[in-house]
Amino acid sequence: MSEALIPETPEAVLEDAADQADEEEPIKQRKNGLYPGVSDELAESMKSGWADTELHGLEPIAQAAHTAARRAALSARFPGERLVVPAGNLKTRSNDTEYPFRASVEYAYLTGNLTEDGVLVLEPAADGHKATIYLLPRSDRENGEFWLSGQGELWVGRRHSLSEAEQLYGIPASDVRELPDKLREASGPVRVVRGYDAGIEAALTDKVTGERDAELKVFLSEARLVKDEFEAGELQKAVDSTVRGFEDVVRVLDRAEATSERYIEGTFFLRARVEGNDIGYGSICAAGPHACTLHWVRNDGPVRSGDLLLLDAGVETHTLYTADVTRTLPVNGTYSEIQKKIYDAVYEAQEAGIAAVRPGAKYRDFHDAAQRVLAERLVEWGLVEGPVERVLELGLQRRWTLHGTGHMLGMDVHDCAVARTETYVDATLEPGMCLTVEPGLYFQADDLTVPEEYRGIGVRIEDDILVTEDGNRNLSAGLPRRSDEVEAWMAALTA
């Protein structure tokens, strides 16, 4: 990776550029950089001789009509108030390198824009609100930012001009560098989505309250509970790519055996990056007893024939919608007798859970249905004393089932997380809601309360279920679930 010439942060770059313009101070260079500075002749040369690359006649992004409707709903909920929704800033990984940027869900949901430092502002107007999207404009050629700044366009790539952004997102665009001063001067009630942009929050520090800001974040979380047509389509895209990623993994299990779980992780990641934006969350590539660790993301263990592989992974689309799918696969292609016994119990529980997902049902129904089946099997196997009603009342099955049977899914893998309890887990299912159904049984390697043959076996089966007008649709039905079908599918892929 090459070194930029001047200070590490964009803020410092802009300050330096302003100083240079006003006072003609020399440009500061990065400590230990190889160039001592920039000659006047070079600086002048870099200002000219560049073609006009402005784009014209751009089509709006695919979800522009949907984001407009979402902003209208937000406007109606908070009339007369200024609403500020930041995208967030780059985060340092180490020294002068940053993590890949991912825009805040709230900002992406309302704008469709995914670039760092953006801010959506809804200002009160007579007929509701006037929306403005504040963005960094094209890099400045006159002051040298485009080639001297570590975030200049010659270093990190071209960004859209403000005019191009207006065409793409259907929102008037302004320079985000002017926004903090505007916010400091603003009067009247203001709400901001916190946690993404410290500079924006600092500009509003005397105008906002934690309680009012929390209400804004809760509203935006609950707004995502029911997916529109565009969102349902994006979730299906994410799942379809995820299905292909699982197929990729099955085809290379022999190479994973020769290396480690990391080979599985890397194989799925390739599919996610080729077809989507990224993985939606850290892939769980848990072989053998690691399958009993719910969020095993170290992925540094061995992959052995005769063991199970619990693969929990999802592709994130370019619009930030993610799949969340789990399959528990026999590494050698065939379940052993005890593995099949446990797997089939989880499959039966998942079938009961999926059947309970329908409009008008309580959100909790699918969890209760799946847990009842698992409790019945645990009693039947003699691992816990019945009757089943007692087991469920006391939650005794949780020693081996551990987690809830699912969650909402969307732009976050655990979507709508700050919604009120009464609108989420205590709510009634509606068409357009999307949730996972993912029961599991986990027998820890050191669990002396179960026979030795159970120990170290973990099984989870997870699918992404969209509530429809007349029931539900399994978005991930392209991956087999029944044990005999899984074996046949694996055999066909490795033939």
In short:
It contains 18 helices and 17 strands.
Our estimate of the beta-strand percent is 5-15%
Give me the count of strands: 17
Order of adjacent strands in the largest pleated sheet: 6-5-4-1-7
Largest sheet: 5 strands, mixed
Radius of gyration: 26 Å
Separation, N- and C-terminal Cα atoms: 42 Å
Shape: globular
Tell me the helix content: 25-40%
Structural class: alpha+beta
Point out poorly predicted stretches.
3-27
* Number of alpha- plus pi-helical segments: 18
Average of pLDDT:
94
Give a quick set of tags describing it.
three-stranded antiparallel beta sheet, alpha+beta
Detailed description of the structure:
There is one protein chain. With 495 residues, the chain is α+β, with helices and mostly antiparallel strands. It is 37% helix and 15% strand. It is built from 18 helices and 17 strands. The chain has helices at 10-23, 40-45, 64-77, 105-111, 145-148, 153-156, 162-169, 179-185, 198-203, 210-222, 229-251, 253-258, 261-275, 337-355, 365-380, 388-394, 398-401, 483-494; strands spanning 82-86, 92-94, 97-98, 119-125, 128-135, 173-175, 190-192, 278-279, 284-287, 308-313, 315-316, 325-330, 434-437, 440-443, 457-460, 463-468, 471-474. The strands form six sheets. A five-stranded mixed sheet has the order 6-5-4-1-7. A three-stranded antiparallel sheet has the order 9-10-12, with helices on one face. Strands 13-16-17 form a three-stranded antiparallel sheet. Strand 16 and strand 17 form a beta hairpin. Helix 11 (229-251) runs antiparallel to helix 13 (261-275). It is globular, with a radius of gyration of 26 Å.
